[in-house]
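Example 369.
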Amino acid sequence: MGIEDILMYDESLFQNINAFDPDYFPPKYNFRETQMEAMAMSIRPAMRGGKPSNVVVLGSPATGKTTAVRKVFEIVENSTEKVACVYINCQIHTTRFGIFSQIHKRLFGHAPPETGVPFSRIYDRIMKDLQKNQKALIVAFDDINYLFQSKNANKIVYDLLRAYEEYPGVRTAIFAILSDLEFKYAFDKNVNTVFIPQEISFPLYTYSQIEDILRDRVNAGFFPNVLPDDILEQISMYTFENGDLRIGINLLRSCGNIAEADAGREITQEHFDRAVESLVSVNVAETIKSLNENEKTLLKLIADNEGLYNAGDLSELFKQKTGSSYASFNRALGKLEFVRLVDTKYTGKGARGQSREIILRFNPDDYDI
Ligand SMILES: Nc1ncnc2c1ncn2[C@@H]1O[C@H](COP(=O)(O)OP(=O)(O)O)[C@@H](O)[C@H]1O
Ligand SMILES: [Mg+2]
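Predicted structure in complex with adenosine-5'-diphosphate:
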């Protein structure tokens, strides 16, 4: 097909292409009842004048954390006037003003003016409103690790959790949502004394759960009979092996796009193969880009020393290169494994206890590290 044909071709395989968008709100949301009930339990006291509890929502990327919190918040908002729930995406809002202006917006229907009003006035207005209306406030910080790029992270949490000292009767709680391992090192000692959260964890989905979720998505997004079952199974298996549901949803969309550009009426094996090929290279490149300096240095060491698989030797090299401790080596290695750029495997007793073997999961020649 020529470019004009591609653009103008009006037979679509997609019944609703938004079903594959990152912010699509799936009407059917299975397998997370336990977690959502646990969240409801922590909010419940606030409906009756009590104090809601703080929560940490923990799990690998794409295990449904964001969606589950938003669903629960929506239900709470629809059932009571006594609790205000505010969802903050920390990839977008990281400043003290930015965050409190979201809270302001939720309570008063509009953001405060950007200039001319000191922060303390905005804060005071929010807290007095909660106090007067006997409303509890729950703030979810999604991907809270990004908040720690702002030097005010501890202050923001403190502002919220210690509000009752200056404004008696004000009840607040924080839902901290995160996928990153490093969070535990992030809070100040001061904050740790007021932020004692209940942990709610989101385990990885099993193969059959993934297949169920993706099938629902197929039914919402494609016309009937566009995606043959055996391709759905391959997509589900690929998604399961990569441990990331988002990959499956992206694959569905890109299979559809490729088939459509091919003027096909159904998705074929070849479309699937091409979709996988384009996905892999984009994903690895993006993950590498998101690493911090230490993690990048370590990845480069691993890539440059293929054949050196032993974690002990590698930690020595890392120390020479960066001057960092064994603990930071371990943290960086943990991260690389967590984002699935490397695999580590215990290989029995070595000179210093358990030895670990490290395996790169991509071809370093294909990427810029
Ligand atoms: N149980 C589920 N049912 C349907 N879709 C789901 C389910 N869990 C996750 N998803 C979908 O997977 C994607 C990632 O979910 P998200 O809530 O953003 O995960 P996280 O916040 O843990 O990274 C979203 O598109 C979401 O709609
Ligand atoms: Mg999320």
